[in-house]
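S1.2 Input.
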Amino acid sequence: MIVQKYKDMLSGKSVIRQLSEFATARGAEIGYENVFDYSLGNPSVPVPREFTEQMIHMLETKDSVALHGYSPSLGIPSVREAIAASLEKRFGLPYRKEHIFMTSGAAGALAHAVRLVTEPGDEVLTFAPFFPEYHPYVDLAGAVLKVVPPETETFQINFEAFEKMMGPRVMAVLINTPNNPSGVVYSAATLRKLSEVMTRKSVEYGHDIFLISDEPYREIVFKGVDAPCVSAFYENTIMCYSFSKSLSLPGERIGYLAVQPGCREAETLVNMCGQISRGIGHNCPPSIIQLAVAEVLDLTADLTVYETNKELLYRELISLGFTCVEPGGTFYIFPKALEEDAKVFCRKALQYDLVLVPGDTFGAPGFFRMAYCIDTVKVERSLGALHRFVETEYPGRV
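S1.3 Output.
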């Protein structure tokens, strides 16, 4: 017999993917340049030239068996060493290769992290608004994801609700900063308080509570915004990183898991990742991509376009009467819809070829997400459609 739980998941297809497919189909009808598709967080800037040159150089000069063969289970040692050295230099924490595990992007890192620190039936807390794929990452590991309701004035952590939801079955807290979908960056004050609460509760419950930090947008931070290193605030932190956004490499599926050096049994946790991989298949990311990213660890793609796009959209949204927390990073913005039901709001927007994602899927009903990782010219053209949408559907706002 087939497994019913996966069959049941077919009816719960990602809203984001559904809207992206709609945009593609609509583009085939009227030209994709005329569809203002803010659905999918797919980086829109080229990879750094140095990465491409490194790939070409390796393909022309290196042994093909080494480039295309299996890597060791934990990743190529020289790559792990380079990542550890980069983290130590940037954040002042004594990372070594023994703290690093190479993964298939941040998704692979999160899949391992959850399995490292939870047994079936254990609880993982996360904070709305949150990336909806956290549910399969946690649920399919046998743990239970519980969502702390949002603090919508700033989208920092709702600590009152968080403390009420803490309990002895909570083994991990999962955070994402800079945040998808809000674009908000957790402040140092927020991270200090989070560490204090988790430390106190670990003592109260008599077991470690791990902080799983999902950080694929760590390098996309806007001018004047402080983005503290999460791992510096709490020893039992497992960092989950992806090069998808920083280097514009989402299709290469490359990232890493880094256990904070001060974490109890840090090296054991990394070695355990190799055993977890045997069961879930997230093992041995491509050797050539591991070697290439190790040569460009201190570089990023040209990420400035995202801040340009944010400025355009934020100004227009505010001028049209939207309530919106200004993003501090990422390529997302998360305004409040102009009516209570954001799903209805987003359906109306489709009539103007504006593809927006309702906030319900992120645990924040009444809001909607715009992924502005598109050409700036298209953002500028979309402002007219946004204006027409609001003027027609919500008269008196403009």
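S1.4 Remarks. The chain is about 40% helix and 10% strand.
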